[in-house]
Specification:
Layout: E1 2-9, E2 15-21, E3 36-43, E4 50-51, E5 56-57, H1 59-66, E6 69-70
Amino acid sequence: MRLDIYRRPETDGSFSFLAVPEEQQIPEEATNTDWVIEARSVEVQDEADGLPDYEIDRLNEQLAEKGYAMTALH
């Protein structure tokens, strides 16, 4: 699968990441924040369970549930 990756700054100087299937719009519930494109058309194995470079866990579960996947906030 191919994903577009977005990022936004957090108050502590770190970043949150959002993965959306290629060429889909950022979901409405996430558009009220300052997401900027980090990478386009990132090739990811269909069975991948996460994107460690972007601190995204449960990738396929989140995509199936919400249509996007996000970095877990700690």
